[in-house]
Amino acid sequence: MSGLGEKLFVRFLQIVYTLIVATVMIFLRLKHGPKLLETKKRTTPPKCLEGWNSRYLKLKNVRLHYVQTGEDSKPLMLMIHGFPEFWYSWRFQLREFQDDYRCVAIDQRGYNLSDKPMGVEFYTAELLVNDVKEVIEALGYEKAVVVGHDWGALVAWKLAISYPELVDRLVILNAPHPTAFMKVISTNFKQFRNSWYLFFFQTRILPEMCCTTFDYKKLMLSLFLCTTTGTFSTANLQRLPPVKPRTLIIWGTGDTALVPECAKNSLKYCEDGEVKYVEGASHWVQQDEPKIVNRHIREFLEQRG
Ligand SMILES: *[C@@H]1O[C@H](CO)[C@@H](O)[C@H](O)[C@H]1NC(C)=O
């Protein structure tokens, strides 16, 4: 498929999925009435957010918020959350590794207490990767153990590809290498179908509205939708250089958005990588099975040489 054909195809899918979701939303509104979109006013933050060491870092263009455990003198372990989350996704890892590392869990730009510049042009992969690069440098480190989940892992993959010298070790949780993802989505119908929200999220307003239904209790991300089959061209996939830093991929096999095949495929792009599957854990593997995930990370970091 040509570049234009691909763009039209993506636009087509966006429209199809938007129409489907809009229909579902209208149906739910008729069924449940105005309470569908009512949200409770919350004026005090939940108790579990108290007592964390919350800090800010001024980068060249944005100010990012992060939470730290461990001493400033220790090696850096940097954690990058996914969508639609924030630093708190790493609470179990922040506690687990605080004696050995300076653990820093950032809020990426656009999330929670970090700056949220207006306009999609401020959220390119390059800018997100650059934020992380600047964080490592601004905290005074030459390299870090970089841990990423979901879209945060995509940032971590790209950081390891573009700036391997900054990444001591790479830990990826339930997120495929970018090239592996394009290969799997174009050859595996299940993965293609499960990726519907990537197209849907290009629409304005409706995705946010879906997230607030029933006072945020049912993230409609888990909607299960089908569409006609189709493929992206693999011909014009970006050719990315191999991932040089030693890499651990941890994969919850119960992920409904990403098939486990993505993990094994990702290894092909790593010079030195391994996969640990966590049976039955969902996409949010580090919160579902913190003990198992922490053990895998620890064992991986202890292998030296
Ligand atoms: C950050 O997240 C916490 C927990 O969900 C929430 O209480 C707070 O309002 C959020 N702040 C912003 C500015 O998004």
Keywords summarizing the entry:
single chain; 305 residues; alpha/beta; Rossmann fold; eight-stranded mixed beta sheet; 11 helices; 8 strands; binds 2-acetamido-2-deoxy-beta-D-glucopyranose
Overview of the structural elements:
The protein has helices at 3-32, 91-96, 125-138, 150-162, 178-187, 189-194, 196-200, 206-211, 261-267, 285-288, 290-302; strands at residues 53-58, 63-69, 76-80, 102-106, 144-149, 167-173, 246-252, 273-278. With 305 residues, it is an alpha/beta fold. The chain has one domain: Rossmann fold (3-Layer(aba) Sandwich). Helix 3 (125-138) crosses helix 4 and helix 5 (178-187) crosses helix 9. It is globular and about 55 Å long. The model is unreliable at 221-236 (pLDDT under 50). The structure holds 2-acetamido-2-deoxy-beta-D-glucopyranose. 2-acetamido-2-deoxy-beta-D-glucopyranose binds next to loops. InterPro entries: AB_hydrolase_1 (IPR000073), AB_hydrolase_fold (IPR029058), Epox_hydrolase-like (IPR000639).
The ordered string of helix (H) and strand (E) elements is HEEEHEHEHEHHHHEHEHH
- Strands ordered across the widest β-sheet: 1-2-4-3-5-6-7-8
- Named at the architecture level, the CATH assignment is 3-Layer(aba) Sandwich
In CATH terms, the superfamily is Alpha/Beta hydrolase fold, catalytic domain
Number of strands: 8
The coarse overall form would be globular
Transmembrane segments: 12-30
GO molecular function: epoxide hydrolase activity
Pfam family, one: Abhydrolase_1
Domain AB hydrolase-1: 75-206
